[in-house]
Amino acid sequence: MKRAKDEAKLFFRIDEVSRITQLERRVIEKWEKEFSFLHAGQTGSGQKIFRQRDLDIILRLKELLVKEGLTLAGAKRQIEAEFERRPGEPLHPDRLKKALVEVRDGLQDIASLLGKKSKKL
Questions:
Q1: Quick check: 106 pLDDT over 80?
Q2: How far are the Cα atoms of 25, 33, 96 from residue 65, in angstroms, in the given order?
Q3: Any idea where the domains of the chain sit in the sequence?
């Protein structure tokens, strides 16, 4: 049940990643330096955070290295092949424009709501 909750999160602190993957923090930090496709961010307080995609990559790396016995180089090639960005279907320019207009309108609505709230304070 806890795993389902973890999957709904957008960001994970390094201690959470360590708990979920059952890897030591130093191993995760070493992999982050070794593999350019792992991108930890930082909070305002300087704490490392990982995205869901990074967590998925770390779990797959563990599987490749521990269970399948690949070398770091072999695991790197496999991860790059599996997590490579695949181009989506090209959008028709009219559909793209419509989507961008909807996003703009939504952002303008949010901005106006925030403006109204700040005036009340």
A1: yes
A2: 17, 16, 41
A3: 2-82, 88-121
